[in-house]
TrEMBL record:
Matching SMART domains: Fibrillarin
Organism per entry: Archaeoglobus sulfaticallidus PM70-1
Residues the entry annotates as binding S-adenosyl-L-methionine: 82-83, 100-101, 125-126, 145-148
GO BP term, pick one: box C/D sno(s)RNA 3'-end processing
GO molecular function terms noted in the UniProt entry: histone H2AQ104 methyltransferase activity; RNA binding; rRNA methyltransferase activity
Subunit structure: Interacts with nop5. Component of box C/D small ribonucleoprotein (sRNP) particles that contain rpl7ae, FlpA and nop5, plus a guide RNA.
Purpose: Involved in pre-rRNA and tRNA processing. Utilizes the methyl donor S-adenosyl-L-methionine to catalyze the site-specific 2'-hydroxyl methylation of ribose moieties in rRNA and tRNA. Site specificity is provided by a guide RNA that base pairs with the substrate. Methylation occurs at a characteristic distance from the sequence involved in base pairing with the guide RNA.
Classification via NCBIfam families: PRK04266.1-2
EC number: 2.1.1.-
Name this protein carries in UniProt: Fibrillarin-like rRNA/tRNA 2'-O-methyltransferase
Enzyme class, first EC level, given as a word: transferase
């Protein structure tokens, strides 16, 4: 498909592509919806800005998770829905349960959820999965981006409640949120060692230049 200003380079997952917009590489999703956070829309393609979304940054860095159109997803730390909006584009038949505990970003997030059919917004604390266990079912994928000191404990509690056998997890870790004094590399090592006790690590890696001192950790149960 050739549209003025955009060139599709490679398919990454359902409705998700590595592309070039005005000569600059980025990620895009095919979308029936309007822009949500100031991103460009060219024809059916909505720019997924890697500086605004760690999942887009991970794709830009070359790691792939083949998010399927029928997946059920639990998203911890939805904020105002930047990344959720693109996962929503990908899920043709699936849906995304999205947890956020701060009322301010949740207000903008609700506008997105009202516009879409496949987002279930939940204003709650991701550290208390029992609060929403009556709403959320078993899922194929848990994504976490909450920048909290005890985020591994929170992630593990949600896995125990909601992740299917063989399901995927993806955690975004900001070194300074875990330990503001230690070297980022030693913080990352510690976090990965802790996760290895319970999960199989598929891949981890940095997100620079898009997000400094952050890593992604992709794992499976
Ligand atoms: C870095 S932002 C998330 C950005 C978002 N994932 C995106 O890419 O569009 C982190 C969010 O996690 C939320 N958060 C932190 N701890 C949380 C918790 N225990 N439960 C629910 N939300 C939490 C914060 O309020 C904040 O909105």
């Amino acid at each position: 498909m050739s549209l003025k200003g955009i060139k599709i380079i490679e398919k990454i997952a359902n409705k998700t592509y590595l592309a070039e917009i005005n000569g600059k590489e980025t990620i895009v999703t095919e979308s029936r919806n309007p822009p949500h956070y100031g991103e460009k829309k060219i024809g059916k393609y909505r720019e997924w800005i890697p500086y605004r979304s760690k999942l887009s940054a991970m794709f830009m860095k070359g790691h792939r998770i083949d998010i399927k159109p029928e997946w059920k997803v639990l998203y911890l730390g939805a904020a105002s829905g930047t990344t959720v909006s693109h996962i929503s584009d990908i899920l043709d038949y699936g849906y995304i349960y999205a947890i956020e505990y701060s009322a301010k970003p949740f207000k903008k997030f609700l506008e997105l959820a009202i516009e879409r059919q496949n987002i279930i917004p939940i204003l709650d604390d991701a550290g208390k999965p029992e609060n929403y266990s009556g709403i959320v079912e078993k899922v194929d994928f848990i994504y976490q981006d909450i920048a909290q000191k005890n985020q591994i404990e929170i992630f593990t509690a949600n896995v125990d409640f909601f992740l299917k056998d063989g399901g995927h997890g993806l955690i975004m870790v900001k070194a300074r949120s875990i330990d503001s004094t230690a070297e980022p590399e030693s913080v990352f090592e510690r976090v990965i060692d802790e996760l290895k006790e319970k999960f199989r690590i598929v891949k981890s890696g940095g997100l620079e230049p898009y997000h400094k001192d952050h890593i992604f950790i992709h794992l499976k149960v």
